[in-house]
Amino acid sequence: MTTAEGLAQVEQRIRAACERAGRPRGAVELIAVSKLHPAARIREAYAAGQRAFGENYAQELRDKAEALSDLPGLRWHAIGPLQANKAKYVARTAHAFHALDRLEVAQELSKRRTGAPLRCFLQINVGDEATKSGVRPEDAAALAEAVRGLPGLELVGLTALPPLLDDPAAMRPFFRTLRELAGKLGLSELSMGTTHDFEVAIEEGATSVRVGTAIFGERPA
Ligand SMILES: *Cc1c(COP(=O)(O)O)cnc(C)c1O
C-alpha cells in the first residue's frame, strides 16, 4: 500500500464515521503520525494533500522540521511527552502540542515561544494508569488555569491515550470522560483516537485524530 492509498483509506473511514455521527467532515482534523518514518514518507503524504503531521520525539521533530522546511503550510503536532530541557524544539517548530501535563514544561514552552501562540492540549490520564503520562482528571482544572495565564500558549483542548482494549467500542467511556471534562473546563477541542479506535473517537466527539499505522504501515523498529 502506498502512502497516498493509506491516506485515502483513512479519509474514507473518517468520512463514514462523521456521517454516522451526524458531524461535518470539517469538524475533524486528521493528524498523520509520522514518528520513526523517514522524511521521504512525509513528502509523499504532503504530495497527496496531507498537511498536519504528528511526531513524538522532540529531536526527531527538530530534524524533520529542518529537512522539510521547504514545504509550505506543513503543520507539526508534537504529540509525545516532553522534558523541559527539550521544550525549545517544540516551541520553535510546532503548531500544536498535545501532551501537556506539567506546569514546568508549559513555562518552558511559554518562555521559548515566539510568533503565533502554541496551541496546547492537556493530556489527561483517563484510565488512571500508573505507567502512562498525563495529569489526573481531578488535577486538570488547576493546571488549565495556570496554563491560561502563560503568554505564547493557547489552551485549546484535551488529549487522552486511554487503556488499549481489544474492542474499540469498549473505549467509548474513556472518550466520553474526556469530552465531559473538556466541557467542564470550557475547552472545545478533543485530541483522541488512533489507528485502533479513531472511528469510535469521532463518534464520541474527537476534533483531532492521530493516525499513524493505518496511513504509513508498521513503524520501522
Ligand atoms: C504513535 C502514536 C499515535 C499513532 O498510533 P497508531 O497506532 O500508529 O495510529 C497516536 N498518538 C500518540 C500519542 C502516539 O504516540
Q: What do these coordinates show?
A:
The mean pLDDT is 97. The two termini are 19 Å apart. Helix 6 links the parallel strand 5 and strand 6 (153-160). Helix 3 packs parallel to helix 4 and helix 4 (87-93) packs across helix 5 (103-112). The protein is an alpha/beta fold and 221 residues long. The chain has an eight-stranded parallel sheet with strand order 7-6-5-4-3-2-1-8. Helices cover 40% and strands 18% of the residues. The chain has helices at 3-21, 39-47, 58-67, 87-93, 103-112, 140-148, 172-185, 198-203, 213-216; strands at 29-33, 52-55, 75-78, 96-100, 118-124, 153-160, 189-191, 208-211. It binds pyridoxal-5'-phosphate. The site of pyridoxal-5'-phosphate (PLP) has 13 residues, from strand 8.
Count of beta strands = 8
Q: If strands are numbered along the chain, what order do they take across the biggest sheet?
A: 7-6-5-4-3-2-1-8
Radius of gyration: 16 Å
Strand/helix succession: HEHEHEHEHEHEHEHEH
Tally of helical runs = 9
Measured between the Cα atoms of the first and last residue, the distance is 19 Å
Fold blueprint:
Blueprint: H1 3-21, E1 29-33, H2 39-47, E2 52-55, H3 58-67, E3 75-78, H4 87-93, E4 96-100, H5 103-112, E5 118-124, H6 140-148, E6 153-160, H7 172-185, E7 189-191, H8 198-203, E8 208-211, H9 213-216
Parallel strand pairs: 1-2, 1-8, 2-3, 3-4, 4-5, 5-6, 6-7
Helix pairs in contact: 3-4, 4-5
Bound molecules: pyridoxal-5'-phosphate.
Kindly summarize this structure in a few lines.
With 221 residues, the protein is of the alpha/beta class. It has 9 helices and 8 strands. α3 (58-67) runs parallel beside α4 and α4 (87-93) crosses α5.
